[in-house]
Amino acid sequence: MAPIAVGDSIPDGTLAWFDENDQLQQVSIHSLAAGKKVILFGVRAFTPTCSMQHVPGFITSAEELKSKGVDEILLVSVNDPFVMKAWAKTYPENKHEVSC
């Protein structure tokens, strides 16, 4: 499979996460990105580099990226939604911005 380039359609898939009511939800990647300009980045929860550099870097740069036309910054992970829920709690200042 060739790498995904700017402007390409990404393969669809289903993502799971916990909403603000602690209910497990599922959504397709295509429905999240439909009609939007998105940045999609992948991580592994609780790894030092992702925890201390990758996620904080996107949080810090979010407003700048949005000012350049980015509608959503989507984080996906190989981890299950239970691990992602616990990891999101380590970013309390961005409780609603970081919903994993």
Automatic annotation (TrEMBL):
PANTHER family: PEROXIREDOXIN, PEROXIREDOXIN-2A-RELATED
Recorded family membership: Belongs to the peroxiredoxin family. Prx5 subfamily.
The protein's enzyme class: oxidoreductase
Protein name as it appears in the record: glutaredoxin-dependent peroxiredoxin
GO MF annotation: an example: thioredoxin peroxidase activity
Pfam families: Redoxin
Gene3D superfamilies membership: Glutaredoxin
